[in-house]
Amino acid sequence: MTIRRQPTNRTLLRTISGLAALLGMVLIALAPSMPVLATAQAADNILVIEIAAPINPVIASFIADAVAVANRDNNRAVLIELDTPGGLDTAMRDIIQAQLNSSIPTIVYVSPQGARAASAGALITLAADFAVMAPGTNIGAATPVSIGGGGGEADETMMNKVANDAAAYARSLAQKRGRNHEWAEEAVRDGVSISAEEALDLAVIDLIAENRDDLLRQLDGYKFIRDGEVKIFSSAGTELITVEMNWRQKILNALSNPSFAYLLMMLGILGIFFEISQPGSIFPGAVGAIAILLALFAFSALPVNYVGALLIILAFILFVLEANIPSYGMLAIGGLIAMSLGSLMLIDSSEPYMQISRAVIAATVISCAAFTTFAATMVVRTQKRPSHFGQEGLRGKEGVATEPINSTGGRAFVYGEYWSACADEPIAKGAAVEVIEVLDGLKIKVAAITSTDRFADF
User: Fold this and answer.
1) Which of 95, 103, 87 is nearest to 65 (CA)?
2) Which neighbouring-strand residues pair with 411?
3) Catalytic position from the list 17, 161, 367, 387
4) What is the pTM of this model?
């Protein structure tokens, strides 16, 4: 049925309102049965989560929520398709807790070919009910890495404690799932990494599958344990349903990228710098404040070296001073060095996926140095420019002598006002005059404008 819009037809509007009310009543009446229908249909689904990024708190929350939804809807299983270089320990443990507490089986599939389950990804794979890898993939290198900097005996002792804790955690996960716990401990202590074929031979994983269809075909009939009871997994008649992050999670995940967080911080500093330089601009200050807050959120999940952050702030101070102090470029060079070192030191981690792109640093340092130097120079030039308002703004303005003017007094009409005036040379009434000085007591000193003076530049 086609409904034509006729805003002036009240009868039609009442009809539409009545239909809407009726539809609402039907939905309310069906509401109790809708979850049952959804559950019955969802029981044949396998929820697919595709992860191809470092493990961070946002991704951990996304996976945990998806596992909770799959359990609520009584899905057949949860399939995590994994390709990761590693990630944060706390985020990894959140994912593993969701796996271990799931009432339905969890499958981790290291895919596609060429993917890896390194560091945190290795332990997430070990924690799955079914661990599967695609040909040409690898797993391991789970040695914890310090992200706090430091050094010395205290730091070494702390790292030993962290390594022992991680090794015990990996061993317990492997034992719970009936996998090679000796290799799991070696992956943490020695950082060993193995191929998919080696992982299958060493009983680290359960299967090697070419694709999702091959994975489901091989898993059909596999046993898993839940609450001490042996159960059999069936993939017959299942449908793979891929879930994606919502817009909020996508934004938060993008903010967790070190390079993006770095750009946000620089944008925020530039915006605030511009607002301070030009008070009342409002927009740059508002954008800068928002960017700074978003950068702080991102840095809360990243290993930030605060010395690096202070060096970046020092660089902006030096750029401003360069525009005010004649240092012949020395302050600007110092600012470039401080910003470069600060940017390189900002993220304190040896993991490549935690590093800020060197190309991003180079482009940002050059752009920020050029912008701040240019902006500061323009501000100083504006401040030194003669005022065009008030008494100072009268200098150079032209007017007319309303009565004869001499060294003792007279009057002139200048810039829309009548002024008491004096002049070194007598000026006749009606002559054109130019203000050459503003004296005390709201009195101006003028000089006659001759035709030669008026057209001297032509």
Assistant:
1) 95
2) 420
3) 161
4) 0.66
